[in-house]
Design brief:
Elements: E1 10-19, E2 22-28, E3 37-38, E4 41-43, H1 50-62, E5 64-81, E6 84-101, E7 109-115, H2 127-146
Parallel strand pairs: 1-6
Antiparallel strand pairs: 1-2, 1-4, 2-3, 2-7, 5-6
Length: 149
């Protein structure tokens, strides 16, 4: 599967993991967004469901076992280089709750951390990531009224 300059869009997943009033973030170890803080996630594998992919990707990148709660947003992430499309992902971002594991940067994440809302702007999150986090945060508030995240 060719990620850079693909012949077709690639399907991926992301996770808005909320716990104790904070959101889980990873510092990307690969392009696109290398070095930037973002949501954990990655590409689905052939034959894998979206929910299984989000569980696997979060575990691979952060050491945490999560349970998807609800779809936050389905979006395009298109990065161009001149007139060519360098990266094109269609990403399903899910609100998730932690059900186990130990926080540890792994796979293609250079670092992992929990961030409170007051820290989000200072971390240089890109506008799309910020929008997804805020939407997931609002869903988490609603979900918390029914049960604990």
């Amino acid at each position: 599967m060719q990620r850079e300059f693909p012949v077709a869009p690639l399907v991926g997943v992301g996770a808005v993991v909320v716990k104790d009033g904070r959101v889980l973030l990873v510092q990307r170890g690969t392009e696109p967004l290398k070095g930037q803080w973002s949501l954990p996630g990655g590409l689905i594998e052939i034959g894998e469901t979206l929910s299984a992919a989000v569980v696997r990707e979060v575990l691979e990148e952060t050491g945490l076992l999560v349970e998807p709660v609800e779809l936050v947003e389905l979006l395009d992430r298109i990065y161009r280089e001149g007139e060519r499309v360098r990266y094109h992902y269609v990403i399903a971002d899910y609100l998730c709750r932690v059900v186990g594991g130990t926080l540890l940067a792994a796979s293609d994440a250079d670092a992992v951390r929990w961030a409170e809302p007051a820290e989000w702007d200072a971390l240089g999150l890109d506008p799309v990531t910020m929008r997804v986090i805020e939407a997931g945060w609002q869903l988490a508030i609603k979900a918390k009224e029914g049960e604990s995240l």
